[in-house]
Amino acid sequence: MTSPTRTDPDLLWYVSYGSNANAERLAFYLRGGRPPGAMVTYPGARDATPPRATDGVMLPGRIRFAARSRVWGGSMAFYDHDTPGPAAARAYLITAAQFVDIAAQEMHRAPSPADPLGEVVAAGVPAEGIAVGPGHYETLLRVGERDGLPMLTFTAPAGGRDLEPGLPTPTYLGMLTEGLAQGHGWDSARAREYFARWDAFDRAA
Questions:
Q1: pLDDT digits (tens, 9 = 90+) for 94-110
Q2: pLDDT per residue over 165-199, tens digit each?
Q3: Contact yes or no for 12/141 (Cβ under 8 A)
Q4: Domains, the chain, ranges and CATH?
Q5: Which residue, 75, 76, 131, 175, could crosslink 69 as a Cys pair with Cβ 3.0–4.6 Å?
Q6: CA–CA distance, 152 with 162 (Å, rounded to integer)
Q7: pTM of this prediction?
């Protein structure tokens, strides 16, 4: 594949630090359906084309497990970019419209061509973040640039620092662990050590 450049204005890198780092999990946001162990069925994106490329990346922040997921039942992962890390993540090369549709589903909305998120992304997401709503995954962040294209993710306001800490379910952690294996080649022992840094894996497994 030819490397994307600034001449590809419709492409960007979606960076997932949570369950979407697992490619099989992300596929449900693109094609629709209910992931194993989840309590929500997703409508899918308007464009179900698989990512054009993917790679493991490290972000200069940390992961927090907090609040309660209506999808998994336990706490969710949030990216806190203002606290030292690093945090392991996975970048997917997709279109801006696909990113908008993934974000909309994380915000518990059906994808729509009229979604105002499209204008926000087109205008450029700032590194300090922009809140597009009060929800848990309604703060968009630009976490870097790759091949001349922006790297975007979403998290909670203040990186989840204001949310009640909690434990993720084993099913959710399993999704994250598989994502680390796919994106970084980590085995379960290394994933356990990584999650133990956030006081999550050992108590929830």
A1: 999 999 999 999 998 99
A2: 998 998 899 999 999 999 999 999 999 999 988 76
A3: no
A4: 11-204 (3.10.490.10)
A5: 76
A6: 22
A7: 0.91
Mean pLDDT on 60-87: 91
Q: For residue 154, what are its two tokens?
A: 């979403």
DSSP 8-class letter at 37: T
CA distances from 102 to 15, 71, 117, 198 (A): 11, 15, 11, 26
Residues pairing with 154 in the sheet: 140
- CB burial of 54-85 (b: ≥16 within 10 Å; e: otherwise) equals bebbebebbbbbbbebebbebbbbbbbbeeeb
Residues shown for the chain: 205
CB-CB contact of 72 with 102 (8 Å) = no
Cα torsion 100, 106, 108, 114 to 10°: value is: 0
Amino acid found at 52: R
